[in-house]
Write a structure and sequence with these properties.
The chain is α+β, with helices and mostly antiparallel strands. Helices cover 22% and strands 28% of the residues. The protein contains ten helices and 34 strands. The strands form seven sheets. The protein has an eight-stranded antiparallel β-sheet, covered by helices on one side.
C-alpha cells in the first residue's frame, strides 16, 4: 500500500504535487501533510488519486459511510461510474481486497473533504478530496490514519476498530456507564421516543419574506389539551415507557419565527397552558422535553438581524430551504453560541421541560463556514460551537439529542432521531449492500432511530419495523410527521403518519405507539453491536456483545434460520 501521491489544485486550476509524510503505528500507519506545506489559496487536494482499491471480479468491497446509508460496493463487473459523496456520517472509509484490508480514519480536517468513489475499466478507486474554502486559513493539516486489519476481517471488524479509536480519542463513555450516573438518560434508554408536532404554518410557504401583516395562519393540530389526552390514553393502556418531545410549541409553531421562540404559541394554550400540561404529564410518570433550533433564522423574528447570518465569500447572506417561516437564512454558529444558546435554553427549562432536549439540524449537516469578517468561522470552529450547544443542553436538561448521526458530535450526543437518511429507498449504482455500520460503531454509546423512513415503525410497511429491529433502533413515533403540503416532499414515516383529527385516527395512533412501547427491548441498547450478516436471501442476523441476537425475515414466506422458524415479514430476538 503506497499511499504517497497527493495532487493540489490552485485558484486558476493550476496543479502541483505534494509530498506526504508516512509514519508507522502499532496498528498500521498514518499519512500526513503539514499545513505549512499547503500553499495559500489552494482549492483542493486529491490524495491517492489513481490508486486501485480492487479489480472487477476480485473478492472484496469498498466501505462508504454515506449519510443516506452506510453501504458496501463489491468488486463486480459494472459500467463505469463515479460518485462524489460530500456528506458522510463518519470520517472513514474502508477497503477489503484479496491482498489487504484496512480502515482509513481521517483525523486531520475530518469534515473538510469529499469522498470520490468509482470504477473505470474494471478498476475500482476510493480517495478523499480535501476542499479549502478559506484559502490562507489553514487551521490544521491533513492526516489520515490507516488501521490495517487481518485479511479475513469484514465490515464488523472495521467498525470495532473505529469504535476503539473514537472511544480512545473522543473521551466517550458507554451508554450503561453514563446512564448509571444520569437518571434522565436512564429514563430515555428505557423509553421509546414520541414526538408530537403541535403547530406550524403552511409548507411550502405562500409568503417567503413574512411580516406580521402577511404572515400565514398557524395550523394548530395538537393543542396542549389534546397532548394531555394522548398522554392520559396511553397511561390507561398501561404504557409508561414514553419519552415525549413537543415540536412546534414555540411562537407560530415549528420553524415559525426562529431564532425567536417566545411567546409560547397562543393557539395551543399559551405559556401557562404549556406549563400546566408539562407538569400534568410528568405527574403521570412521563418525561417531556422539546424541540428547539440554533441554526435557522427568518426575517419575521422579533430579533432578526442580518449581522448574525452566515456570509458567503462575496458577502451575501447564506440562504437555505424555505419552511414555515418563509425564506430561511443560516445562523452563524459563533453568533448562535454567543447570542442565543444560554438565554434560549434557560428560558425553555423554566417551562418544565426535562430530559433529552432536542436541538434541530445540528447533527444532520456538515460543519458550516462563515466568511463574515466580524465572526469568521471555519469548519473546525463550527464543530466546537455545535458541541458546546449540545453540552449546554446536557447541563441544563440532563441530555441532548439532535437530528442525525454526524459523529463530530458523538461526545455530546445522547440520541439521534435518525442515524442515516434513506434505508428503505434505492441507493446509487455503487450501492450493493446497505449495512448498519454506524450502529456497529455506536450502538451501546448513542441511542438512535435508524432512518426517517422507518419512523412510526409499527404502522405502514412491515419493512419499517424489521429495519428498526435489524439496526437495533430505539423506536421513534411521530404525530404529524408528514406536514409538508407537497407531493413527495415528506421524508419521514414512509407511508404512514400518526394523527388525531378524528376519534378513529386518535385510537389508531394510540395503538401504534402502544405496540412500539411493548415490543421495545431496552436492555439491548446498553450493548455493543458486534456482528451483522445475511444468513440467506432476505434474512439478516444482528449480534450483540453478550451473545444476544436478532433475526429478521423480509421475505413474504416463512424461513428456518438459527434453529427457529421465522414467519413471513417477521423477526425473532434471542437474548442471552
Amino acid at each position: 500500500m503506497a499511499f504517497e501521491n497527493a495532487w493540489a489544485t490552485g485558484p486558476n486550476n493550476e496543479g502541483y504535487r505534494l509530498k506526504t509524510e508516512k509514519v508507522l503505528n502499532d496498528d498500521g500507519f498514518t499519512v500526513k501533510i503539514g499545513k505549512n506545506r499547503i500553499k495559500e489559496n489552494t482549492k483542493q487536494i486529491d490524495l491517492f488519486r489513481g490508486q486501485t482499491a480492487g479489480r472487477a471480479g476480485e473478492r472484496g468491497f469498498m466501505l462508504i459511510p454515506h449519510v443516506h446509508s452506510c453501504f458496501l460496493t463489491e468488486f463486480r463487473p459494472r459500467a463505469d461510474c463515479e460518485y462524489v459523496y460530500d456528506r458522510y456520517t463518519m470520517p472513514v472509509y474502508g477497503v477489503k481486497n484479496e491482498e489487504s484490508c484496512y480502515l482509513a480514519v481521517v483525523c486531520g480536517r475530518p469534515f473538510d473533504y469529499e469522498l470520490v468513489c468509482g470504477v473505470k475499466d474494471g478498476s475500482y478507486y476510493i480517495y478523499p478530496r480535501f476542499k479549502f474554502g478559506f484559502g490562507a486559513d489553514l487551521y490544521e493539516g491533513i492526516e489520515i490514519r490507516f488501521i490495517v486489519l487481518d485479511s479475513t476481517a469484514g465490515y464488523a471488524d472495521m467498525a470495532a476498530a473505529y469504535r476503539a479509536y473514537v472511544m480512545g480519542t473522543k473521551g466517550l463513555k458507554r451508554l450503561d456507564e453514563r446512564a448509571a450516573e444520569n437518571p434522565a438518560l436512564k429514563r430515555a434508554v428505557e423509553s421509546i421516543n414520541v414526538r408530537i408536532r403541535m403547530a406550524w404554518k403552511p409548507v411550502p410557504p405562500p409568503v417567503l419574506e413574512q411580516t406580521e401583516q402577511n404572515e400565514p395562519d398557524v395550523i394548530a393540530a395538537v393543542d396542549f389539551d389534546m397532548f394531555l389526552k394522548i398522554a392520559a390514553r396511553l397511561k390507561s393502556e398501561g404504557i409508561d415507557n414514553i419519552d415525549f418531545c413537543l415540536v412546534g410549541w414555540n411562537a407560530k409553531g415549528h420553524d415559525g419565527r426562529y431564532p425567536q421562540l417566545f411567546p409560547v404559541e397562543e393557539s395551543l394554550g399559551g405559556t401557562e397552558g404549556l406549563k400546566r400540561t408539562v407538569s400534568a404529564a410528568v405527574q403521570m410518570g412521563y418525561t417531556v422535553n422539546c424541540h428547539s433550533n440554533l441554526t435557522d433564522a427568518y426575517r419575521i423574528a422579533d430579533c432578526f438581524d442580518e449581522e448574525y447570518i452566515i456570509k458567503n465569500p462575496d458577502g451575501t447572506l447564506r440562504k437555505d430551504a424555505c419552511w414555515s417561516g418563509g425564506q430561511m437564512y443560516q445562523l452563524c454558529p459563533k453568533r448562535a453560541y454567543e447570542r442565543f444558546l444560554e438565554p434560549s435554553l434557560s428560558e425553555i427549562r423554566k417551562l418544565g421541560f426535562y430530559g433529552m432536549h432536542y436541538i434541530d439540524v445540528l447533527s444532520i449537516i456538515m460543519p458550516r463556514e462563515c466568511y463574515d469578517k466580524n465572526h469568521t468561522v471555519n469548519r473546525g470552529q463550527c464543530i466546537w460551537y455545535f458541541n458546546e450547544m449540545l453540552k449546554k443542553a446536557r447541563e441544563i436538561f440532563g441530555g441532548a439529542s439532535s437530528e442525525g448521526g454526524m459523529d463530530y458530535l458523538a461526545a455530546n450526543l445522547d440520541f439521534a432521531l435518525y442515524s442515516s437518511f434513506n434505508l428503505l429507498g434505492a441507493g446509487d449504482r455503487l450501492c450493493d449492500h446497505k449495512i448498519p455500520f454506524w450502529q456497529l460503531v455506536y450502538h451501546g454509546i448513542i441511542l438512535s432511530n435508524p432512518s426517517p423512513d422507518v419512523i412510526n415503525c409499527t404502522c405502514g410497511s412491515p419493512a419499517k419495523l424489521l429495519k428498526t429491529i435489524e439496526y437495533g433502533g430505539r423506536p421513534a413515533m411521530y404525530y404529524y410527521s408528514r406536514f409538508v403540503q407537497k407531493e413527495g416532499a415528506n421524508w419521514m414515516s414512509a407511508g404512514a403518519d400518526l394523527t388525531c383529527g378524528t376519534e378513529e385516527n386518535f385510537e389508531r395512533g394510540i395503538s401504534a405507539v402502544a405496540r412500539a412501547a411493548r415490543m421495545y427491548q431496552s436492555r439491548l441498547q446498553y450493548l455493543y453491536m458486534t456482528g451483522h450478516e445475511q444468513l440467506q436471501p432476505g434474512v439478516f442476523k444482528t449480534i450483540y456483545e453478550d451473545g444476544s441476537f436478532s433475526v429478521v425475515n423480509y421475505n413474504d414466506h416463512p424461513v428456518f434460520a438459527e434453529g427457529r422458524n421465522i414467519p413471513a415479514l417477521d423477526y425473532a430476538i434471542v437474548t442471552a
